[in-house]
Amino acid sequence: MIKYPMAVDMRFVLTGAKRVFDSRPMYAQLVVTDDCNLTCAYCDEYTAKAPLPPLDELKRRVDILDRLGVQVYDLLGGEPLLHPGLPELVRHAKSKRGGSNLVTIISNGFLLTERIVRDLNAAGLDFMQVSVDSIEPTSLSQKALKTLMPRLEMLAKEARFQVEVQTVLNETTRDSYAQFRDMLQGLPFAFGFSIMHGRGGRIAIQGSEYLSLLEKYGVFEGVNFYGQHLREMLKGDFSRPWRCLAGLKFLYVNGKGEAQWCGQQRDCRRKVEDIDLAWLRSNRRHKPCEPGCALGCVRLISATLGEPFQTMGASLSLALGLGRKAGGR
């Protein structure tokens, strides 16, 4: 039976409230490895056969991020399950702040085994986001239910962390998305989709078909924060202003240990050990990549901390898991 994480306590909430006003990051995406076992055509955030960063080095990066103030970690790749030290890295991250933080693994799920799930349970993992795009493999993605269903069924039985199945919407997945959701109805997972982007993070799809899916299902909470803006972008209108907080409240730490604004903006880099408050404050500005940006994680943190009063209800729902259904469990 899947249990909701207890990491969102009053300490977490109060520290998160501080992040609205201070100059410290709240959310970090930490690349565990650039290597990946798949070659999805729409993805440019992996390097085949890239060397694995040493576990001790990854732990050191977590130590630095914790001292900076990070409360929420995404461990990703590439494919993070390729790293044999992943459960120990989760354990290390959860040792910070007395466990009053959140740790997520973003995975394609192909390498999941019962042993790995048990190890992640024991390490205290809070969430796993499994990327599954379609019912059958497509020209853009190999992440298909036909291949992954046995692993998802195992995950439903064994995981003590919350699981979300996340889909990248594009022209090869949109028409079968309703059937895709129907096939997964019996599993105690949350569901969401992200909007396909191109290089630089700019939205790569438009049209009424996607608007219809948005109206029917919504997307994961971070994108719902800017729902009207997303509707406009799906119609080709990128005029609405917003301020990206990447490099300040949101950090992306690549496989070399360099902090970037995000996974798509790679020109602004700084060694994670060289990050200071002055550098963080320097990123509190509008960025040229904002028009058309469809990066949900960056949007989530920018909306939560940049517009706290408008997003307060959604933020609490996200943090406490109130908006997620788990099949009655």
Protein described:
With 329 residues, the protein is α/β, with parallel strands linked by helices. It has one domain (10-320): Aldolase class I (TIM Barrel, Alpha-Beta Barrel). It contains 12 helices and 9 strands. It has helices at 10-18, 55-68, 86-94, 114-123, 145-158, 177-183, 208-217, 221-224, 227-234, 277-282, 296-306, 312-320; strands at 27-31, 72-76, 102-107, 127-131, 162-169, 190-195, 250-253, 258-260, 270-271. The chain has a 9-stranded mixed sheet with strand order 6-5-4-3-2-1-7-8-9, sandwiched between helices. Helix 6 links the parallel strand 5 (162-169) and strand 6 (190-195). Helix 2 (55-68) packs parallel to helix 3 (86-94) and helix 3 runs parallel beside helix 4. Residues 322-329 have low confidence and may be disordered.
Please, how many helices? Answer: 12
Order of helices and strands: HEHEHEHEHEHEHHHEEEHHH
Oligomer: single chain
Q: In the CATH classification, which architecture applies?
A: Alpha-Beta Barrel
The residue ranges in which pLDDT falls below 50 over 5 or more consecutive positions are 322-329
